Amino acid sequence: MYAVAGPASPHAVTPPPRWARWAAHAMPLVALPSSLWRLAMAAGVPVGYSEEVLRTDYDIPGTGSLILVLISLAQEAVALLTLGLVSNWGLITPRWLPLIGGRPVPVWAAVVPAALGALAMTLITVSQYLAWDQVDDGNLTGVHRTVMGWLYAPLLLWGPLLGAVTVSYWMRRRR
């Protein structure tokens, strides 16, 4: 059973709808293509930038490679957190967490950051989409620019998917 406590508990929560589970599981996949692009760039795979641009604008090879790897890992980790909105660990904190382990997750502690994240990702990705014709103008052209665009395009789904899963979580958790 999907609940914070026993079936007769006032903390019982209905399971998430199938669409919300699907949307939450899609989040890491939505983030993956752009992460792979950055990882390829960090590893020195020719993604369309000249060696001079990689060195001067992105510090690759160098600190820029580490930064791109860390950004990709952080992006995937944050995307994976969405699974908490459809999992039991989004209801009760995992026991291994110091001080808070095994305690119920306050609704606001999940909904507020998720809602702010959904809003932020929607604003960021839509603004970048609207400015796409100015992104890396002259540094990245032709097929490389098209490939990069297609790899970053799935991020447009991040905000709306996270928003929908957040609303589903909130509706199931409210009393």
Q: For the report, how would you describe the main beta sheet?
A: none
Please tell me what the overall shape is. elongated
Class from helix and strand fractions:
mainly alpha
Percent helix, as a range, is: 55-70%
Radius of gyration, Cα only, in angstroms? 20 Å
Compute the number of helices.
6
Distance between the termini: 18 Å
SSE string, helix = H, strand = E? HHHHHH
List unreliable stretches of 5+ residues.
1-8
E-strand count: 0
Q: For the residues shown, what is the average pLDDT?
A: 86
Share in β-strands: under 5%
Please name the defining characteristics of this protein.
175 residues, mainly alpha, 59% helix, disordered N terminus
Account of the 3D structure:
This protein has 175 residues and is an all-alpha fold. 59% of the residues lie in helices and 0% in strands. The protein has 6 helices and no strands. It has helices at residues 18-42, 51-58, 63-81, 107-130, 142-152, 158-173. α4 packs antiparallel against α6 (158-173). The longest helix has 25 residues, at 18-42. The chain is elongated. Mean pLDDT is 86; it is low at 1-8.
